[in-house]
Write a structure and sequence with these properties.
Strands 1-2-3-4-8-9-6-5 form an eight-stranded mixed beta barrel. Strands 7-10 form a two-stranded antiparallel sheet. The N terminus is likely disordered. It has five helices and ten strands, in the order H-H-E-E-E-E-H-E-E-H-E-E-E-E-H. The protein is 25% helix and 21% strand. The longest helix is centred in the N-terminal third of the chain and has 40 residues. It has 285 residues and is α+β, with helices and mostly antiparallel strands.
Amino acid sequence: MGKSKNKKKVNPVRRFFRNVILAVASFAAFVSFTFIIYETVWIPGHFNELTSIFKIDEKLSFNHAEVQQKYAQLKADYPDFAGNFMVNGLGMNFPVTQCEDNTYYLKHTIDGKLDKHGALFVDTKNNLNNLDDNTVIYGHNMKDSTQFGMLNMYKTVDGYKLGPVVTFNTLYKDYKWKVFACFLINTDPKDDNGYFFNYTKRDFEGNKEFRKFYNEALERSYITTGVDVVYGDKILTMSTCSTLFDDSRLVVMARLVREGESEEVNTAVARENQNQRFPAVYKEH
């Protein structure tokens, strides 16, 4: 006769808690998987859908004579549509908005949907029909590289070389811009001994004021690019949040390619700035 096997009885209380733990773990895994799908599949797909709308029917008519024909449908469908921002080497291609509220597109996409990514938006005070001396675009610094998440690349020479020229086309005209600075800035004067660099200043009263603005941007820049900027050049400022200290911003500046000037940039002369100026609060870290 074979020997009988003694089956070990499992304590029902232990079994209950084990099942609960397994259920919680399974739920957590499901939530994590869902989040990953949302971040890596849905969000990029959603933004690809938005950027794909730039394929416009060129035959479409629009009642505003100054609006470029290729953007007529977009303006009709999205009243706050203001232009298109692209950096081919960094994979950036996003619609740009503008409205009377500089906070709305921090939490809304161009189609009005609530979304933490928001949308790129031009400062409400800027004039896109007749460009100001300095045009400012804001956008979130997203970890999934959407919006202005790729601006971090301009902190290094190698990153800068991938996108030395950016495209910002407005409703009214197409523009190319040569990047000349990228810097960290405080928004609260207390973080820099009571000083704040007004990098969003729209217009300059003369060459002296402009040179002071331009030189300070260069002093603060992570890199020197060799791109010359003179009084009368139009500037494009791209501003995004930074995590290096509270209320800090990462700023990239570019100047408009001049009429008749080549769009080519000699990136071989770009160098790291060895004497970079930082806000006082950051130097104390």
